[in-house]
TrEMBL record, chains A, B, C, D:
Organism, scientific name: Streptosporangium amethystogenes subsp. fukuiense
Annotated keywords: DNA-binding, Transcription, Transcription regulation
Protein origin, superkingdom: Bacteria
InterPro entries the UniProt entry points to: Homeodomain-like_sf, HTH-type_TetR-like_transc_reg, HTH_TetR, Tet_transcr_reg_TetR-rel_C_sf, TetR_C
Keyword DNA-binding applies: yes
Lineage: Bacteria, Bacillati, Actinomycetota, Actinomycetes, Streptosporangiales
A family per Pfam: TetR_N
UniProt domain HTH tetR-type: residue ranges: 12-72
Identification of the protein by name: TetR/AcrR family transcriptional regulator
Keyword Transcription assigned: yes
DNA-binding positions: 35-54
Length: 200, 200, 200, 200
DNA sequence: GAGTAAGCGAGACGGTACGTCCGGTCTTTGT
DNA sequence: ACAAAGACCGGACGTACCGTCTCGCTTACTC
């Protein structure tokens, strides 16, 4: 049985330095060339301090992102609800497309995704900590649309999110096409066609 | 200037041994732990023989797959066309889902995808050599459906394929849900709703 | 300026535990693999408690031995003096040879010697605290022999001790020959030949 | 079973660079602070190249010395034989004392000795490759003295060498006294007294 | 007897070196 | 001339200890 470190004694300054160094280095050299040694050196930290608290390089990257997000709007993420579902969704999808297209976030997000593909545990953690809260907000907006009769009342909302986002995600991941605002709009339109209420 | 090896003198036996070893090792230890040295040792080949003919580990994996596919039906891939678009698509989608769900092909396909995510060039090559021919066959079937009035005549067929496959691909890649035949069916149904001809 | 710990407050129980642990570990794993961490762990003591009271690993080993010796006859070590110098010396030399040959004391004595070879200060301390008193007793016996006319009156007694003991020490240290009682006897005989009074 | 490297393919330039670096570093920083990494770096060599050919740090040091000696008078070491045993021995012993007293050779010889004390195998190798040939030459001189009636005919020559050299060795190793020419002379004189032929 | 300061067990920390593994290059020896 | 074999330099891996540094806790000594 491996000895467990005592989290109460953890040095918060070191933790922050490591996460920051990890983020910076992913942006600079890319995920494939990222090394624990380089993170430790950049953070001014002993390697053991990384190995003590994280089981893998992927876990460090993951925490680096988690820390970023938690620094954001702590609770209650809410999507715009103007009453016009199509307009609201287009706005959100365009924003997502723009974020993906931003070269600055390119490397780190890609790193995180590769790590999730390799490590199911990490992927589950990602969903729980980062994706689910956001998805819940999105589903809340869709439920509001269902109540307003703009969306089929019996629509599977998880499927709905997949329909909306998976094509965008795939294009970005495999670089199989441009992530333009027009493409975002098109996805929303097709989605609405698929999910609109039956004419009765 | 690097010296170019002469492909005419290439040892076909070594090439096959390398590709086979690469496939086997990816299945056994996973992509992340796959090493060139191990491939060379398993194939009974000098490391240089690998470096001489392939620029990267990803390229070897890619060729290993390409070789597999080319062993298949060399030309003229065609999808079933019974006249019933929904049934035909469900069959194809169920087959795709089953292939993804098969643990045997899990590791290698995942390896190939990670490599494509990291290496745009490889991704392009993949599309050109493997994906496009298959996609063309799929689009042929959809065009047939358009002519039969089962699909909107002005539908963007590339978008159509994304709509159909991206959710499946995303679920598999991130393990975010089960790849059941029912799910395959559902995707086809939603797709058809989104792409059906306007009632006029 | 380093803060000096107050010896009055020193925990005797910890001190003993450390010395005992050090002795045990030297026997078990040898000097080269002895670590401060292991001593602390074995003794159930914080590392700092060792660093507070000893300047080096060698100093701990040294004290471990000192403690052992001080447990013995506190003052007034005296060699047997039966009047027969040769018999008396042979007894003492055989005992020394036997002690060196004992596998139990092998590792720790070797450890102490290596430390002395590396650290002149420690060697001086060793001579002052452990070797000199013993040597003084030996020289007292030799002086008695000089008075009895069994040894040259002008013999250099320090040189005499070197002549007697150095060959034994060298054999033991470098394992260059067996440490038998016969060898001990031979050394005494040769020594007496070299140091006997001139016939004149 | 570990794979054995093929000595035929060994890079002689690397071997020399490693041995030279080892010698230099022992002189500069001492044996205790000598590291394999530093040797590799100084020699411009990968660490693996050291680990491939030597089992331990001590073995490297040992080879470094062996190489030095082998560069010397390849075969047939002979001591001076003027017919005057005392004068010849004093010359040799004074030279040995001077060599030990030389600060330049201090660190490396001490390193080698510590390593031999710790590693019986290394000590045996040392005797076989370095000490025995030299000792044989010394014994040859003593045999010549026996034939000339200057030394007891039945004297044990191995013991004789111990008697002569062990006190010197011990003084040097433990720094227990000065290594003056006078001391060397005294040792020879005492030795001759102990080993001279019986008056008959 | 309360307050305080030291030593204490514990163990996290910034580091250094370990010995191993592998990447990519170069050299030797067939064939 | 390519291939197998594998030594080479380089560099990251994950581990072990170093000696230092906080933590609370216990244990004297002081007031």
């Amino acid at each position: 049985m491996a000895k467990q470190p005592n989290p109460a004694r953890r040095n918060e300054r070191s933790r922050q330095a490591i996460l920051t160094a990890a983020r910076d280095l992913v942006s600079e050299v890319g995920y494939a060339k990222l090394t624990i040694e380089a993170i430790a050196a950049r953070a001014g930290v002993g390697k053991q301090t990384i190995y003590r608290w994280w089981p893998s390089k992927g876990a460090v990257i993951f925490d680096a992102f988690l820390a970023l997000s938690e620094a954001g709007p702590e609770q209650g993420i809410a999507l715009p609800d103007t009453g016009d579902l199509e307009a609201d969704l287009k706005m959100v999808m365009r924003a997502t497309a723009a974020e993906f297209a931003d070269p600055a976030s390119e490397a780190p997000i890609r790193a995180l995704n590769i790590e999730m593909i390799n490590d199911p545990g990490l992927a589950a953690q990602y969903r729980e900590k980062l994706a689910d809260p956001v998805n819940e907000a999105k589903k809340a907006r869709l439920r509001s649309a269902q109540r307003a009769g703009q969306l089929a009342a019996d629509a599977d909302l998880d499927l709905a999110l997949e329909l909306l986002y998976a094509p965008l995600y795939q294009r970005w991941l495999l670089r199989s096409g441009p992530l333009t605002p027009e493409y975002a709009d098109t996805l929303v339109e097709v989605f609405l066609k698929a999910m609109r209420p039956e004419p009765a």
